[in-house]
Each structure stands twice: as structure tokens, then as C-alpha cells.
Design the sequence.
């Protein structure tokens, strides 16, 4: 979820500026979403208040998206199409956009035709009938372009609610200077080694080894899934049935593990994506950063990897619970979905399938480290595999870490109550950090809260 | 208005002032009708905006609050069930309890600070006092969000000046937004922001007192302290009551500062931290406008009760002026 904050501090200012423009666009652009219906008897709807310039007079489809290189992506798409043109606006990243999306769903107007969403939020909107099943619009034509896990993330049973663009296979980013100074020759391969190394560095007077930020619940959920937790079971085919298992042994183990590290002072308790955290990262306050493939781009944008922290970064595969049976997990990643408020759903589906799917956009995205592409056309290319990542001082991070992780990723079933679940998980993590709850207590409390909420929302909950 | 009435009186009423029977009354009522019409025109712009932007949304919110929405079940009529849920919802009750405690501590502190400043400034008449008055008022002129963000920086465990000072002694400064300190941390922000504003209200009330009263008191042998506490404070009791009510309502609706500081609070400030934040989260994050409306109305009920109780308890002091 926090992929949203990709562009970092400097990007944030830009995003704020953009969303400020987009808010005004939103008012009439909200009309933009629905007004064309009235004009549609004519030839093609003409949208106003687009951030980009059209390349021709083809019918237009409105799109919300926040990729930092979105302007290039939209221009590439428009230049390559004479049958459709994208009218794009950036209305904010992640939660900022979701607030607007949710309000537009509740108001039953104001959504764009195509909207950028993270995979973990799809079922929350699908259950409100806000997203179009893309299978009748040829979604399966592009299925072969993606890995099984990536496709599962956008599917609900036989239905497909979005087309994936980028993903977040996780790895362990670490500081070579800290590792060297405290005599850690190889990065930890298991979480047990991770804890041992953390204790070793701390005993030698070193910095904390990692960070348990309460505001990255999506990452924490991924770490629980790695141990074998299956937090939710849900299929839109039976929209009222929801399985909730947040206090099984695997979930508790992972919570207890991190609670133990936090309690012993082996990891920090600082929320991530904040200036305090980034400053700590730059100044060597954290030996490792458990994060996803988009992290190098995010960190670069936030000013990490320059000056004091230049040339000290490397990445290793995510530590495992059981080295013999490694599990790959994902944090973040985004998609394009078609909304039920779209004027011309077929045209909108063409956009969802085609945007950010052309070679020029994809290579612009991954070379600028803006995305970790999920399109096999990139993942299977030797150029991508052999690429030497600047941030990691020329390490072939894709080949060594991220590609194997993505290829082994199996996909996750997300609940239709993601926002609420993340908020509660965040509250529990904050309690653990404050020493006010053990891992077991946090898991049990979370289970009770989520079950109660789900029942109040009319779900038939299986525990 | 006063002007219009005067003209009316001069023009129409003067001849008919003596108490006649029917005709006189009829003429007077025609004049009154005309006046009422004029008055109505004066009130109209306000009334339209008041109805459109306050009464109508309130009615709509109340209407929403009578329905309940489940993500899986859709919208159904619920009557007052949402209110029953709200007043048994631990999140809402915890938030209400927090703002009540906050009000009980904050308001006396704020009153004391602003009253002390106003009394000091009132007894000084130098150029410095005018400058000081402006400086004390300045925090109120800073938008609340920007003020809160600034405090977020001051509290920062990395960049904040508190930590810089602690660094000199090799110590760790307390993080004022962690669960143990967030109460004081927020109180400091709010007092900083509002004390100047309340100070100005009190100061204006003090300026309105006839200074010959002070002279009389001094001739009677009152000291400066006695003048301040026996003469000035009782005479501005109604101003004090006014700002107390302002502060009470404002504190119960506490929203902006914690919302702005949420991102830097390391999870201390939760989506149900205060009732208003809870309503906001319910509406815009959890897609439950119906329950959010019920929470807002429930908060309104709490505010109403609190203000009523407060006015009841202070009715004697308030009636002095």
C-alpha cells in the first residue's frame, strides 16, 4: 500500500501540487466522467481539464494515475492510438486517491473511466460494484503477459478486475558499510540469522538492525503470509462470505518475532516514509530495510544513496523461515481498473489493457526505477535481467533478487475491507512498539476487531 | 436597522402615537408589516446561506444517520440503531472520553495563560506591550495545519530542537507524540495556538472598563493585585464565560491538530483518536457515511450536554454582568 508514497519527499510536494490542480479538474472532471453520456449520441465525448494534450480527435477515456512518469506513459499511449485518447489527471497517490475514489463511488458520480489502484484495494471497490469485470472485454487476451501470482492478485475466481502494471517482490536491502564494520560477512538467509545478526551488531554498539514501522501494515501482512498465514478468504462470486484468520499460529509467530526484536531494542520503532525515517536511513541508523523492488527508486527519490550514504547499499533475498521451502512475498504494486461509471466500457478496457504496456513506457519506467514491471516482455528480457542497478553500486539486483522473487510469487487473496484491516493492524503494531501488547494479544485482538467489523458490514464470517 | 426605525417613527408614527383604537392600530400594523418586510430583506441573504449550507446538510446528515450500510448487504433503514451502536462503540466512547479529559485539563490552563497575559498587557502601556500583544496573537494567525506541522518538526526525534539539546548531554529527549506524552504534546500545540486569541478577547473586555473605577479602587486603598482580581476579573466575567464556551465546543470537536500530526505520530494517533477523526475515517476511509453521520450527531449531543451542564454550573457567575 505504501508503494503509493513511491516518489518520496520531493515527489510528494509535486503530487500535492498536482492533486491541487486535479481537485479543480475533479469538479468539472467529475462531470467529465458522466457528462459525455449526454453527448454520446454525437461522435466522441470531449473531456476538458486533462493534464495532457490530445494527439488526435479520437474518443477520449478519462484516467486517474500517479506514476511519476505518467505524463510520458500517457503520451506514448496517445501517440500510438488513433481510435482512443487518454485524458489523464493525477488526483493524489494511494490513500489520497482512494479517498476521492471512495467518495465518488458513494456519490455515484465523479469516477474516471479508468483508475489506477493497488491490487490490495480491488476487492474493496469490486464489492461496491464500482469495478467492471474485464473478462468479457478480453482481459484474458493479456493474461499470458503476466506471472501467475500477478494475475491472481487482480482476479476474483473467474472474474478479473484490473490489469497489473507493477509489483513489489520483497528483498532485504542492507548497508554494506554497517555489515562490514560489525563483521557480518553474508546477509542473513533466515529470520533466525537475522535476529542473531541484530543481537551481534547491537552488542558491539552498532545501530538497530531493522525497523518495525507501524504505518506499513501491508508489508507486515506480507511477512506473515511468508510464514504461511492466509489472512483472508474471499470470492466475489459469493460476496457475503468472508474467511478471517488473523490469529493463527503463523500470524502470531511473526508478530511475536518482531515484538521480541522491538522489545530488545534490536529494531527501530519509527514509522516509515517519514522524514525522520529517511534521515535515519541516510545516516546509518538502520542496518537493513525490509522492502520491495520499488524501494531503490523510492529511496533515490528521497535523497538516499547520495553523499553520506553513497555506494553502501546492497540487496539480498528476503530471509526465510524455512530455507528448504522458500516463500516469496509481495508488497505494493499497482494496476489499472475500469469503473462501472465509465461511459464506454469497451474503450475503457482497451485503455486499461494498453496503458503502460508498450515497450517504450515500460523501459522508461524500469530504467528510471519508477516501477518494477510485471509484463513478461520485460521480465523475460536479458536487458532487464542483466541490468546493473546504480543504487546498489552496479549489483545485478533484478537477476539476483527480484526476478526470482517475482517468478516464485503465488499471489494473495485480499479482503474487501482492506482499509479498515490495515488501520487496525497499524494500531496493533503501534501497541507492540509501545510495549502495550504481546504478539499473541495483538493477533487475538485484531481477529476479534476485524470479525466484529466484518459482521457489522453484513459478511458471514468464517473464522 | 436603527436608522430605518428612526425614519419610520418620524414619518408615520409621530401623529398617531397617542393611544387611539381601531384605525390607529391598523395604521400601526401596516407600518409594522412594512418594517417587517424590510427587516426580512435584510435577513434574507443570511437566511438563504444558513439554510442551504447549515440546516440542509444537517437534515441530510440526520437522514443518512437513520440508515445503515453494510458493504456486503447494502443500505437498509435502521432507525436509531446507529446511535445505539455509537454509544456502545468502544472507539467512539474512547474518543469522547479523551476529548472530555482533554477539555478538563486544557481549558483551565488556556484560561490561566490568556488571562494572565491579558492582565499583564492591560497594566502596561509601553511600546513593548503593543509588540508583545501582536506576538502573542500571532500563533492564531498561523493556519492550524501549518502550526501543527511545525510542531511536528519541533517534536521530531531526529531534527527537533528538543533532541538537539538532549544530544548535548548524550540523552534521548522524550517523543511528545508517543502514547505516554501525546496528551501533553497536543495540549501544548493547542494552547500555543489559541491562548493569543483568547487573550485578545479578554484584553478587549478589559479595555472596555471605565478606568475611573480603578482610580476609585486605588483611593479606597486597593493594591494592583487586588484591582486585578477583585475588580477587573469580576467585571470581565462574561467575556471569560464566552471564551470558556468557545474552548469547550472547540475541544470536544478536536480534529485538525491530531489529524495533521497523525503521519508523524508513529501510530499513536489512531483513526478513532477523537470522535471527529473517527467520523472522518468512517466516512472517507471506510465508506460508511451513514454511521459517520450518526457519530457526528452523537458528538453533537455530547457537546450540547457538556455546554448545558457547564452553563448551568456557571449560571451565577455569568449573570454578574
Sequence:
Amino acid at each position: 500500500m505504501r508503494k503509493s508514497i513511491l516518489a518520496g519527499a520531493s515527489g510528494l510536494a509535486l503530487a500535492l501540487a498536482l492533486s491541487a490542480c486535479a481537485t479543480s479538474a475533479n469538479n468539472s472532471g467529475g462531470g467529465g466522467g458522466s457528462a459525455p453520456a449526454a453527448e454520446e449520441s454525437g461522435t466522441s465525448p470531449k473531456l476538458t481539464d486533462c493534464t495532457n494534450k490530445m494527439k488526435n480527435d479520437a474518443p477520449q477515456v478519462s484516467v486517474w494515475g500517479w506514476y511519476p512518469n505518467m505524463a510520458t506513459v500517457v503520451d506514448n499511449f496517445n501517440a500510438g492510438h488513433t481510435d482512443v485518447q487518454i485524458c489523464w489527471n493525477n488526483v493524489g497517490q494511494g490513500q489520497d486517491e482512494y479517498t476521492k475514489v471512495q467518495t465518488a463511488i458513494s456519490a455515484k458520480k465523479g469516477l474516471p473511466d479508468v483508475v489506477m489502484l493497488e491490487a490490495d484495494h480491488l476487492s474493496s471497490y469490486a464489492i461496491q460494484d464500482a469495478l467492471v469485470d474485464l473478462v468479457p472485454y478480453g482481459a484474458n487476451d493479456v493474461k499470458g503477459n503476466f506471472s501467475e501470482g500477478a494475475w491472481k492478485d487482480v482476479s476474483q475466481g473467474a472474474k478479473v478486475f484490473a490489469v497489473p502494471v507493477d509489483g513489489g517482490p520483497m528483498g532485504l536491502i542492507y548497508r554494506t558499510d554497517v555489515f562490514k564494520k560489525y563483521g557480518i560477512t553474508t546477509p542473513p538467509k533466515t529470520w533466525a540469522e537475522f535476529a542473531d545478526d541484530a543481537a551481534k551488531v547491537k552488542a558491539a554498539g552498532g545501530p538497530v538492525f531493522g525497523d518495525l514501522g507501524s504505518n506499513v501494515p501491508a508489508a507486515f501482512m506480507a511477512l506473515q503470509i511468508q510464514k504461511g498465514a492466509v489472512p483472508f478468504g474471499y470470492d466475489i462470486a459469493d460476496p457475503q462470505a468472508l474467511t478471517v484468520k488473523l490469529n493463527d499460529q503463523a500470524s502470531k509467530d511473526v508478530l511475536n518475532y518482531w515484538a521480541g526484536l522491538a522489545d530488545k531494542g534490536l529494531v527501530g520503532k519509527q514509522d516509515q516514509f517519514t522524514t525522520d525515517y529517511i534521515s535515519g536511513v541516510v545516516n546509518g541508523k538502520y542496518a537493513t530495510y525490509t522492502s520491495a523492488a520499488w524501494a531503490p527508486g523510492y529511496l533515490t527519490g528521497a535523497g538516499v544513496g547520495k553523499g553520506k550514504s553513497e555506494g553502501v547499499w546492497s540487496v539480498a533475498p528476503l530471509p526465510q523461515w524455512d530455507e528448504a521451502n522458500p516463500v516469496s512475498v509481495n508488497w505494493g504494486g499497482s494496476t489499472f481498473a475500469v469503473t462501472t461509471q465509465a461511459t464506454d466500457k469497451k474503450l475503457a478496457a482497451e485503455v486499461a489493457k494498453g496503458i503502460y504496456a508498450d515497450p517504450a513506457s515500460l523501459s522508461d519506467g524500469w530504467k528510471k526505477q519508477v516501477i518494477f514491471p510485471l509484463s513478461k516482455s520485460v521480465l523475460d528480457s536479458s536487458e532487464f535481467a542483466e541490468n546493473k542497478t546504480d543504487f546498489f553500486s552496479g549489483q545485478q539486483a533484478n537477476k539476483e533478487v527480484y526476478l526470482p522473487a517475482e517468478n516464485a510469487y503465488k499471489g494473495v487473496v485480499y479482503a474487501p475491507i482492506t482499509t479498515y484491516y490495515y488501520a487496525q493492524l497499524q494500531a496493533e503494531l503501534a501497541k507492540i512498539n509501545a510495549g502495550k501488547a504481546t504478539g499473541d494479544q495483538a493477533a487475538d485482538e485484531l481477529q476479534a476487531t476485524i470479525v466484529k467489523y466484518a459482521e457489522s458490514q453484513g459478511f458471514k464470517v468464517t473464522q | 436597522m436603527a436608522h430605518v426605525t428612526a425614519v419610520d417613527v418620524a414619518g408615520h408614527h409621530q401623529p398617531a402615537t397617542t393611544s387611539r383604537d381601531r384605525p390607529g392600530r391598523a395604521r400601526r400594523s401596516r407600518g409594522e408589516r412594512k418594517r417587517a418586510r424590510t427587516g426580512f430583506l435584510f435577513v434574507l441573504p443570511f437566511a438563504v446561506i444558513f439554510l442551504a449550507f447549515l440546516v440542509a446538510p444537517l437534515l441530510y446528515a440526520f437522514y443518512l444517520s437513520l440508515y445503515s450500510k453494510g458493504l456486503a448487504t447494502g443500505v437498509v433503514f435502521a432507525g436509531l440503531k446507529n446511535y445505539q451502536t455509537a454509544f456502545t462503540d468502544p472507539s467512539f466512547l474512547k474518543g469522547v472520553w479523551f476529548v472530555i479529559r482533554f477539555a478538563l485539563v486544557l481549558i483551565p490552563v488556556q484560561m490561566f495563560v490568556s488571562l494572565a497575559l491579558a492582565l499583564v498587557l492591560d497594566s502596561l502601556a509601553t511600546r513593548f506591550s503593543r509588540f508583545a500583544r501582536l506576538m502573542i496573537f500571532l500563533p492564531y494567525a498561523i493556519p492550524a495545519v501549518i502550526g501543527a506541522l511545525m510542531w511536528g518538526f519541533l517534536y521530531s526525534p531526529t531534527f527537533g530542537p528538543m533532541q538537539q539539546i538532549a544530544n548535548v548531554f548524550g540523552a534521548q529527549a522524550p517523543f511528545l507524540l508517543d502514547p505516554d506524552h501525546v496528551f501533553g504534546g497536543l495540549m501544548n500545540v493547542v494552547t500555543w495556538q489559541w491562548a493569543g486569541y483568547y487573550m485578545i478577547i479578554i484584553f478587549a473586555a478589559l479595555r472596555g472598563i471605565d478606568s475611573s473605577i480603578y482610580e476609585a479602587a486605588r483611593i479606597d486603598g486597593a493594591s494592583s493585585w487586588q484591582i486585578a482580581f477583585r475588580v477587573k476579573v469580576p467585571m470581565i466575567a462574561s467575556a471569560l464565560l464566552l471564551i470558556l464556551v468557545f474552548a469547550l465546543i472547540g475541544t470536544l470537536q478536536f480534529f485538525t491538530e491530531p489529524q495533521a500530526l497523525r503521519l508523524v505520530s508513529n501510530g499513536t494517533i489512531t483513526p478513532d483518536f477523537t470522535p471527529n477523526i473517527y467520523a472522518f475515517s468512517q466516512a472517507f476511509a471506510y465508506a460508511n457515511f451513514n454511521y459517520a453521520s450518526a457519530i457526528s450527531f452523537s458528538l453533537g449531543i455530547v457537546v450540547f450536554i457538556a455546554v448545558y451542564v457547564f452553563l448551568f454550573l456557571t449560571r451565577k457567575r455569568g449573570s454578574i454582568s
The two ends of chain A are 25 Å apart (CA to CA). The first strand of chain A starts at residue 60 and ends at 64.
